[in-house]
Amino acid sequence: MAAEKGMDGEMVRLDRAHVWHPFTPFSTWMDEGYEPTVIVRGRGSRLFDVEGREYLDGNSSIWVNLHGHCNAQIDRAIRAQLKRIAHSSFLGLTNEVAPMLAARLLEYARPQGQHGTDGGGFERVFFSDDGSTAVEAAIKVVYQAFQMTGQQERTQFVSLGRGYHGDTVGAMSVGHSAVFHGAYRGLMFSSGEAMSPACYRCPFNRAAPERADARTTRRCGFECVGQFAQRVEEAGGRFAGAVLEPVVQGAAGMVMHPEGYLSKVADIVHDAGGKLILDEVMTGFHRTGRAMAFHAESCQPDVVALAKGLTGGYLPLAATLVKADLVEAFMGGPERTFYHGHSYSGNQLGCAAALANLDLLEAPGFGAKLERLIARLGRAGQRFWAHPHVGDVRQQGMILAVELVEDWRSRKPFAPEKRLGWRVSEAAKKHGLLTRPAGDVLILMPPLSTSAADVERMVEACYRALCDVLPVSAGV
Questions:
Q1: Structure pTM?
Q2: Which domains does the chain have, with CATH numbers?
């Protein structure tokens, strides 16, 4: 440990001299008064920095870790695979783990026959590297399938406002986030933007603000669904499909959709002859309490994009699950080939980790234990309502979002330049918690393996940090 401590200054010096961090302003990172946290170890839901300080991993290392750091079962699976081979090309070759993973994923995504479905309908899995590439592949599959089946006019996609699906050009094009993608508008193709079903800030929600999740108190006529239908109607015969995060829009600020929204828009998409692409990159693998978030509603997507938790948070791997009718369009000679791919497609180490991850998720008792933990997070999260600058507290599975506002009675937001969410997250480090906000929305998303006691500690640390930045000087 002493050697690690001695390296702290040198690590930071080299980092500041040579590294470019994602989603990080240079003005903050290069400020000599700012102390970067250098993580060197992890165990379970805890991370340790070079100084030996211990932190609770409150955002699952940016929403990827499911079973804690150094999980013995995933560690063993990777070591066993490493003894055989780490990677070989998937172009014109196959291997012994990717096909097994594909079969397991198709079964895992099956809606268990509920809602009278036919059992899923997914036929094939296309492997790539991360969430952006999984969504990119999904868009191209749908686009090319229409091009090859005599429906060349179907080129228009519809997606949700404030949406974020990754940073490749195609994924950006179906996102509508000025913060993330405004600088690249000239590179992107156009897509229809439907309003986000964000109950807390919905202009159609007639309910006055209350100290409760806005989804539970909303008074509206599902105008958001009507707005979505209008965008599809405007596309007319050019409509190819819709792309959306089911149930929870992550980077938008953990916007959680009202029950019934997904099934309603799915019907609109299919009635118009389009294809439904669901971005389950963040919401998949029990993060929302179900294997797939779309399992919560009567909804059958045509394509599903998976990543983040696919390997339990260990290695970069993504998968795009595709229904049989879309796959059929590609059957044939070279002229029907899907000319899209990645050097690390079907990577053996990643696939081995993903198989071990599925074993853990499907182990006896996992579901019941997770339900108890979700309930514990919900109860603990209620304490945020005591703070006068909290406007909304919403939970979906193991995701807790706390929206900060200047005035909760009017929902008036803080000025963005105040960076309240970032300041609270920075203050949380002093209380032993690492997390990252989405604007002024505080987020707690613990690994699914977190103990009930650590869930309580995370909430306590986050609340204390909130009070450090915004002291409670008046009643609610």
A1: 0.95
A2: 37-70+366-469 (3.90.1150.10), 80-361 (3.40.640.10)
